[in-house]
Structures are given as structure tokens and as C-alpha cells.
């Protein structure tokens, strides 16, 4: 079996909005996903260190293939966020810490789709799946302190702000502080 041929167990992801759909990424999504990344390259590059000028379709294909292996092993999850049928972004669980039953979430959204609550709904669905489907205890979201748009999402979802990790991320030519937000299974509604 090739990565992505069959998913081991369906993951229930619902955004409570029929126009916003989350689906585990597939190799067939790579071209469309890359086109959205390429169209938003300058904007995404401000906060995401993997968006280099050299990042190309083959890099996206390799990344998706790696995520598919994690999904099959249930050690991570990457989903495309589709809004009205089109890929509008991506969200996922980073590598799951099985011993501590914890993970963090990463996400990005096409600039043209911001301000509609799409990523907040997507994040709520992924956090719910992390607790219900993966049996995790803790989910974190880490955002650069200057990335107010990203920090607004865990705040809207009533995550607890645990604090700031000083110079915990390197972004191109500088160190950035990261805000750490967390949700625990017993607190999640």
C-alpha cells in the first residue's frame, strides 16, 4: 500500500458549517494546495519558516507524503480546509507525544478567506478530534507574539494562555517569542 491509498480509520471532523469542510490531506490535493501556498507566499512567509523562496511543488509533495505516513500511524494529522469546495488553507496536529498524550496544532489560511471564522471553526473541529478520536489530554497552540491574527483563534476558543516562551522560534533573521495556549480534555466542550 502506498501512503494515502487508504486511511486506517475515518476521522470525524465537523466544522458545524456546511461551507467549511476538513478532509485529511491526500496526494491528489498537492497541486491545488501548492497553488494556494504559492499565491500566499509573501504573506505566509511572515510567520512560517518553511515558506522559502525555493519551496516548490516537489517540496509540497514530499511534505504531504510524510504527513500521510503520520496519519496512517496515528502519530499526526494534516487536513486541508475547503471553503465552498476550494482549498482555503491547512490545519493539523503536529507529531503526537504518545507518552504525555499531547500535541500542538499548526494552521494557515489563504489571505482571501480570512475574517470569516473559517480557521476558528476548523481549529475547533481538530481540537475536538484530538480529544475524542485520539484520546489526547492536552493540545497546545503556539503563536509568535506579533501574530495577532493567529493568537486570536485560541483566545476565541477559550484556550488558557500559559505564558510566553522567550525567543523560542527562529524566523528568518530573528528570534521571536511564542505565546503558548493550551486546552485540556476535561475542559473542552
Report on this structure.
This protein is of the alpha+beta class and 189 residues long. The protein has a single domain (20-187), classed as Aminopeptidase (3-Layer(aba) Sandwich). It is 30% helix and 31% strand. It contains five helices and seven strands; from the N terminus they run βαααβββαβαββ. The chain has helices at residues 30-39, 41-45, 57-73, 118-132, 148-156; strands spanning 20-24, 77-83, 86-93, 102-109, 138-144, 160-171, 174-184. Strands 1-2-3-4-5-7-6 form a seven-stranded mixed beta sheet, sandwiched between helices. A hairpin with a 2-residue loop joins strand 6 (160-171) and strand 7 (174-184). Helix 1 (30-39) crosses helix 3. The longest helix has 17 residues, at 57-73. The chain is globular. Mean pLDDT is 92; it is low at 1-8.
Which key terms come to mind for this protein?
alpha+beta; Aminopeptidase; 7-stranded mixed sheet
Amino acid at each position: 500500500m502506498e501512503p494515502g491509498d487508504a486511511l486506517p480509520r475515518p476521522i470525524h471532523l465537523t466544522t458545524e458549517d456546511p461551507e467549511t469542510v476538513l478532509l485529511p490531506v491526500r496526494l491528489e490535493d498537492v497541486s491545488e494546495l501548492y497553488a494556494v501556498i504559492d499565491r500566499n507566499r509573501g504573506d505566509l512567509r511572515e510567520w512560517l519558516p518553511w515558506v522559502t523562496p525555493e519551496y516548490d511543488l516537489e517540496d509540497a509533495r514530499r511534505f504531504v507524503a510524510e504527513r500521510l505516513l503520520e496519519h496512517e500511524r496515528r502519530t499526526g494529522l494534516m487536513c486541508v480546509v475547503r471553503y465552498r469546495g476550494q482549498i482555503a488553507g491547512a490545519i493539523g496536529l503536529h507529531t503526537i507525544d504518545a507518552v504525555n498524550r499531547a500535541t500542538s496544532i499548526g494552521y494557515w489560511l489563504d489571505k482571501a478567506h480570512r475574517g470569516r471564522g473559517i480557521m476558528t471553526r476548523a481549529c475547533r473541529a481538530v481540537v475536538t478530534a484530538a480529544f475524542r478520536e485520539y484520546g489526547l489530554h492536552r493540545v497546545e497552540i503556539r503563536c509568535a507574539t506579533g501574530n495577532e491574527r493567529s493568537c486570536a483563534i485560541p483566545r476565541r476558543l477559550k484556550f488558557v494562555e500559559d505564558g510566553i516562551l522567550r525567543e523560542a522560534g527562529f524566523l528568518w533573521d530573528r528570534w521571536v517569542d511564542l505565546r503558548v495556549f493550551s486546552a485540556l480534555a476535561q475542559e473542552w466542550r
